[in-house]
Amino acid sequence: MAAAIIIRLVWSLLLASSLHGFHAKTPAKITLGTSLTPGVNSSWQSPSGDFALGFYPVTGGFFLLGIWFDKIPERTLIWSANRDTPAPFQSTVNLTLDGRLVLIYPNGTRHFINEGEAANSASMQDDGNFVLWNSFSRVLWQSFDSPTDTLLPGQILNMGQKLYSNANGTVDHSTGRFMLELQDFDGNMVLSAYRFADRGYWYTATINQKIVRLIFNQSTSFMYLINESETIYKMTNNVPLPIKDYYHRATVEDSGNFQQYVYQKQNGKQWESVWKAITEPCFVNAICGVYGFCTSPDNQTISCSCLDGFSLLNPSNPSKGCSPQFPIEQCGEYDSMNYKVVVIDDADFPNDVFTDLERIRNSDLESCKKALLDDCYTIAASFNNTDRLTKRMPFLNARQSLPSTKIIKALIKVPIRTKRESGGK
Ligand SMILES: *[C@@H]1O[C@H](CO)[C@@H](O)[C@H](O)[C@H]1NC(C)=O
Ligand SMILES: *[C@@H]1O[C@H](CO)[C@@H](O)[C@H](O)[C@H]1NC(C)=O
Ligand SMILES: *[C@@H]1O[C@H](CO)[C@@H](O)[C@H](O)[C@H]1NC(C)=O
Ligand SMILES: *[C@@H]1O[C@H](CO)[C@@H](O)[C@H](O)[C@H]1NC(C)=O
Ligand SMILES: *[C@@H]1O[C@H](CO)[C@@H](O)[C@H](O)[C@H]1NC(C)=O
Ligand SMILES: *[C@@H]1O[C@H](CO)[C@@H](O)[C@H](O)[C@H]1NC(C)=O
Ligand SMILES: *[C@@H]1O[C@H](CO)[C@@H](O)[C@H](O)[C@H]1NC(C)=O
Ligand SMILES: *[C@@H]1O[C@H](CO)[C@@H](O)[C@H](O)[C@H]1NC(C)=O
């Protein structure tokens, strides 16, 4: 609460000072020997004032050197230089006389943005790109080449480049749990829960291509993939017109979705989705952590909980996953009499090469239950009225997501007594 008030206060101070700077005439080129500090002269604005680069306030009195939409109340951050090391109040960013853009922390630590040839000037452009130029107006460095979680119209993603979600919406802009990668070895573009060695929960299947690029077309605001000769995958197919009446962005979100948004410049109230990779949010892998269970009644929000026999690792953050309330027994002392099978309707444990054990065709519910109890290695199974798929521990991605998991039954084996009686030894 106090933190929120302080942030609002800092924002209004920043707003006052940056608006003042704007009316005082924004130079087209930022010259060598110029610097910014949080609070005072806190941003370099683009000529239209749509974008600004400067110190963006985050929680705890810290700042990120970043670029944001400067004319909308949300001040949506689209790029940052130092997302995992926020800068304290007394930090500065300098475009030094020797041509370096450098973030200087109060303890003297320096974070250099550009290397190699010295820059001669810089500019914050109206397309949201921050550019460092040499004396022949050649681009030496640009923020469009090192995206964090967001792409803007005019920006291109090349093979090998990645976007990482942030950790928590507007609360925590550090590197989060989900990655969008345009894979350099095959040209496939994949969304994954990369910390789990995940093969991905959404992909474009644009494989066996030599060169693939993601284009965020500035004139149409459509996103699509191209190879050397043609469009090979279309994402956006509809945006409100005219294009210039809206702000546009595409972001890999903390929910694991990759989504394109518009914000009406006049009278707009919020970002509105025009395209999304994932339509059922529980299909984002690992969204509820290890042993977590995801439900989504409306395809908009999700809720994470634990299955019978499991409890939340962190009760104040259900997305961190669950842990078993029972000891995992060695197979040598396994006794099926100590276990029961719980059946969850319209739910699934999706396919996963790491935890799938076997697929049995033409099964039925009773034999699925019996098979679970009889085999000490299996902990869970899913049954779709014909086929049974068994799982071992630990499992990810248990979910109930309609209509996709309709008729599927998720089966899980738990001890009849979830806690050992105390003093029983
Ligand atoms: C802020 O910017 C103005 C105009 O560029 C400059 O005159 C002034 O010295 C700057 N103030 C600080 C504290 O850097
Ligand atoms: C960075 O800018 C500040 C404020 O203008 C100045 O005091 C400092 O000497 C500069 N540091 C470097 C390395 O240029
Ligand atoms: C300097 O400050 C930054 C930000 O607070 C911190 O991450 C870094 O570890 C510090 N470096 C040293 C050498 O103390
Ligand atoms: C953007 O789309 C327009 C209209 O389809 C096309 O003429 C132009 O070449 C595209 N731009 C890029 C960078 O592909
Ligand atoms: C581009 O992709 C299309 C469709 O997969 C393919 O037919 C074509 O040969 C590719 N072009 C190049 C130059 O690889
Ligand atoms: C969720 O999205 C899917 C796929 O677009 C759709 O078929 C389904 O009706 C939606 N479910 C709800 C509850 O809105
Ligand atoms: C994000 O932050 C909010 C507010 O602090 C918190 O309630 C929520 O649990 C956080 N979510 C995640 C996924 O960490
Ligand atoms: C169950 O899954 C198998 C394998 O994916 C599939 O062939 C079968 O049609 C499914 N049965 C139903 C009723 O959906």
TrEMBL record:
This is Bulb-type lectin domain-containing protein. Keywords: Disulfide bond, Signal. InterPro entries: Bulb-type_lectin_dom (IPR001480), Bulb-type_lectin_dom_sf (IPR036426), G-type_lectin_kinases/EP1-like (IPR051343), S_locus_glycoprot_dom (IPR000858). It comes from Tetracentron sinense (Spur-leaf). Residues 1-21 form the signal peptide. It holds the Pfam family B_lectin. It comes from the Eukaryota. GO terms for biological process: recognition of pollen. CDD domains: B_lectin (cd00028). PROSITE patterns: BULB_LECTIN (PS50927). Residues 29-145 form the Bulb-type lectin domain.
